[in-house]
Amino acid sequence: MKPEPIALRPLARRLMLMLALAALAAFALHQHANAHHGWSSYDSSKLVTLTGAVAESNYGNPHGTLTMTAEGKSWLVILAPPHRMDSRGLSPEMITPGKEVTVEGYVNRQDPQELRAERIMAGGKTVELR
């Protein structure tokens, strides 16, 4: 004869459910952080320099971006988070559409028109982004 399973008390059941949900949430956040900070998708063996006019800019979280025309094509440039750009002296006004900028960074291996900027020269100033 098999023994009857022991029923968990309601409080213990809730605690186990909360622990399982917390573990699942922690795993999901870890996966999201790895995907977002996966800089290995950029070719860091070759520093690229682009100079051109800003077509669009976004000074938002999780990081700023700008679209610029350089070398005869449109580029998506991934910048730093706004708090870092602010603290290092890059204001939103320095990268508005029409302004000329120079960026140095690394091209995305899967998207050859995307660049992760290491530094930007705008408004007569060089700003380190990483």
UniProtKB/TrEMBL annotation:
<keyword id="KW-0732">Signal</keyword>
<dbReference type="Pfam" id="PF19649">
    <property type="entry name" value="DUF6152"/>
</dbReference>
<protein>
    <recommendedName>
        <fullName>DNA-binding protein</fullName>
    </recommendedName>
</protein>
<dbReference type="InterPro" id="IPR046150">
    <property type="entry name" value="DUF6152"/>
</dbReference>
<feature type="signal peptide">
    <location>
        <begin position="1"/>
        <end position="25"/>
    </location>
</feature>
